[in-house]
Design goal:
single chain
């Protein structure tokens, strides 16, 4: 639900370039309570990295970096973080 809200807000304010960073922020922040809920402490690293990626994306957008570069940076870094988290979880069994 929060993702739809940030997409709507970014589009309504005519800042669609903020969408990738805003989604990464929502995703990152939601991993903090999941860490406790599922007793998966490695999710704290996932949460911290996704939040840092989101803040980096927001900083890039604020400095006038082209939207395509913000999307690529946030998207690829988020994907790598989520894949690494899934891989780590798969190894633990």
């Amino acid at each position: 639900m929060a993702i739809f809200a940030v997409i709507a807000a970014a589009n309504a304010s005519d800042h669609p370039g903020l969408i990738p960073a805003a989604i990464a922020l929502v995703e990152g922040l939601h991993f903090f309570p999941l860490s406790r809920l599922y007793d998966q402490h490695q999710y704290r690293w996932t949460a911290a990295l996704l939040t840092a990626i989101a803040l980096t994306g927001l900083a890039l957008y604020a400095t006038g970096t082209p939207d395509e570069a913000v999307r690529a940076t946030v998207g690829l870094a988020s994907a790598a973080t989520l894949w690494a988290s899934a891989y780590h979880l798969a190894l633990r069994g």
